[in-house]
Specification:
Helix content: 55-70%
Number of domains: 2
Order of helices and strands: HEEEHEHHHHEEHHHEE
Radius of gyration: 26 Å
Largest sheet: 6 strands, antiparallel
Strand order of the largest sheet: 4-3-2-1-6-5
Strand content: 5-15%
């Protein structure tokens, strides 16, 4: 009988530990994805220049493109004309990329000058990029200021971080403490807005890009005035969907944890708190050779 109870306790403890680890992993995963979504196109590091909601590409002699995220933008150029690059099979070795971390704080003329200066654009290509940037940057500024607002994304990161930490603190604290219910209620309030913002960002950005392209999801690009092609960024769309999913998963799992942490749930969890469940047990030997379990 005692052996059966011991097996049940071990099985329950293992299940609880898995539940706790999944909660932590979903929270960390959601935060990491949120940071990548927010800071897409601010740098070439970690592949951030591939996270953009729109790309404007020159439809002409040279291969020039400008990708835009919620804050930054990355311009890439190929030194060879398009015809030469196609003949050689690839122009990747002659491609240069430069990113500006925050395009909101600079005027269009300053952005154009900064891109061309850092990419060292000269000769015949200078006139071509001048013509491209004079149109592309105005469209980019319009998208950042009037279509794809950065505020909801930044607010969602803050709400997710603050409410998550509050819930972790509450789940490991005694419920009889003063102010406990107020903290939990505030955390739930913030969590509700975090979930709502995640869904609004994921769905709203797709709908906004559909409006820009003049069609539904199958339409991925559109030609502007015979000189610029605008296309959607599928990687950022996917990340924003993953952010909404992992955010919802985290709050559902930690909500289940609170439900189990009732008077009955406390017996189910063996009287352990969240930290004790998460950390593995390790025996520490006392002076008389008796094992004292610590976490």
């Amino acid at each position: 009988m005692a052996r059966t109870q011991s097996k049940d306790t071990d099985r329950r403890s293992s299940s609880n530990r898995i539940h706790a680890f999944v909660i932590v992993l979903s929270f960390v995963g959601a935060l990491v994805i949120a940071i990548f979504v927010t800071f897409g196109c601010i740098s070439t590091d970690l592949g951030l220049n591939h996270l953009y909601y729109a790309e404007l590409r020159a439809n002409g002699t040279y291969d020039v493109s400008l990708r835009v995220g919620y804050f930054g933008g990355c311009m890439s150029i190929s030194r060879a004309p398009v015809a030469d690059a196609g003949a050689s099979g690839s122009s990747s070795t002659r491609r240069a990329v430069y990113c500006i971390k925050n395009m909101h704080t600079e005027a269009a003329a300053d952005l154009s000058e900064s891109f061309q200066e850092h990419l060292n654009v000269t000769g015949d290509m200078l006139a071509f990029t001048n013509s491209f940037l004079s149109i592309a940057i105005l469209h980019v500024k319009h998208l950042q200021e009037n279509v794809f607002f950065y505020e909801p994304v930044a607010i969602q990161v803050a709400l997710l971080g603050v409410s998550g930490l509050m819930l972790f603190a509450a789940v490991g604290a005694p419920s009889h403490r003063r102010g406990y219910k107020g903290v939990v209620a505030l955390a739930i309030f913030l969590a509700t807005f975090a979930i709502a913002l995640g869904l609004v960002i994921a769905i709203g950005s797709i709908q906004a890009m559909n409006a820009v392209l003049g069609g539904g999801r199958p339409i991925n690009e559109k030609l502007f005035n015979d000189s610029i092609v605008i296309s959607r960024g599928s990687r950022l769309d996917g990340l924003q969907g993953a952010l909404a999913a992992t955010t919802t998963l985290f709050y559902v799992l930690i909500g289940m944890l609170f439900v189990r942490w009732s008077s009955e749930g406390e017996r189910e969890w063996g009287g352990e708190n969240f930290i004790q469940v998460l950390l593995p047990e390790r025996p520490v030997w006392g002076r008389r050779g008796k094992a004292i379990t610590q976490f």
